[in-house]
Amino acid sequence: MSKDVNATRRKFLGQAAALTGLSVAPGVFLVDLAHGKPADEPVSAKNRWGMLIDTNKCAKDCNACVTACQEENGWGSNEVKSRPDQQAQWIRKVNLKHKATGATYSLPMLCQHCETPPCADVCPTGASFRRADGIVLVDKHICIGCRYCMMACPYKARSFIHEALEDQSVNAPRGKGTVESCTLCVHRVDRDGANATPACAEACNEEGHEAFIFGDLNDPDSRLSQTLKKFGSRQIRADLGLNPGIHYKGI
Amino acid sequence: MKSLHHNNKRIATLLVAVLLSFALPAMAETPVPAIPKGKGVKCVEPTDVMRKRHFEFILHQRDATMHEGIRTPQHSLAQCLNCHVPKAEAGQERVRYGSDEHFCSACHNYTAVTIDCFECHNDGPTGQPLELTDAEGRPTLLAQPLDLVDEAVRVATREEEQ
To answer: Which residues in chain B are closer than 8 Å to A133, comparing Cβ atoms?
Structure first.
């Protein structure tokens, strides 16, 4: 018997044993494979959540990701007293034109979830922080609303809330005097782990564009990592060396 | 001398009677907060524990959720409100934070302790009340109450390991 056959058989038996161990009865698994970490387990650096946005698939006139984010996180409709330039923008559609070639691009712009986020660097209270799994958040319990992070962010991804709010979404508590930005739908990520789909990506899929791929950059087998490996990507302002978790393709 | 002593005694009795006449009705009428009753048979912790330590539970859960993504429902603020604040009746406005009829405000107004949870958090129910038992009557929550001291040690150990 050749070495290869043995290796294949060993692999198969190993997988079979693993499956038997996990399942008590057909269809009943001890470990719920379809969901993320248990609710009482802290996030860890094992994962680094990120996204790939394919600008070729992003439709110029489509705003579905923005509307879905507004609905999911409860921004965009309840700031009635703020001027338009004061109102929150967690995600926005940007249309670009290449000066030399005239080529046009459309892409969603959101918090890039940097590996070394400048917002967290400048925060005087530690309210801006990067979670172990790479998601950059604002702890509004300790945010004093100084807005240094808004000035430090090269992507203009953050917003400040200027007025008292009520009936906030349970997914994203938000209130006057604090800074906020895209959370990568952290409530979904905590619940579903690698199977999570942020609201923007979900809406894009529903529209049939499928421009977003959410996943774990640390897992070489994830669809995200595989696509990045195969097709390559660009990070916006990669020259700053911030290593954003959001990658773009086609720009 | 004797009559003076007698007089003193009479004055003292009178004084006590006068004081009691003021104090007794006042004691009977001491205002107490009217705390709205929550849904379900019992809270996630015994009532006396909740009265003394609810803020510790919420504060602890706040940091665990925000920084470590721990989203257990037991001490979640949203779950407090799901049981303790009634949904709006049809065509009526829901009870708001600040009103004495709001569960949190009932006591916090009474004790004049300001809380700012609801500057950011929704002050009403946003989901279903927590099921404390499953269909067969087994408890669905963690069996042992959360010990904050143990928890602090656990967090410290974890940080050291990282």
So the answer is: 69
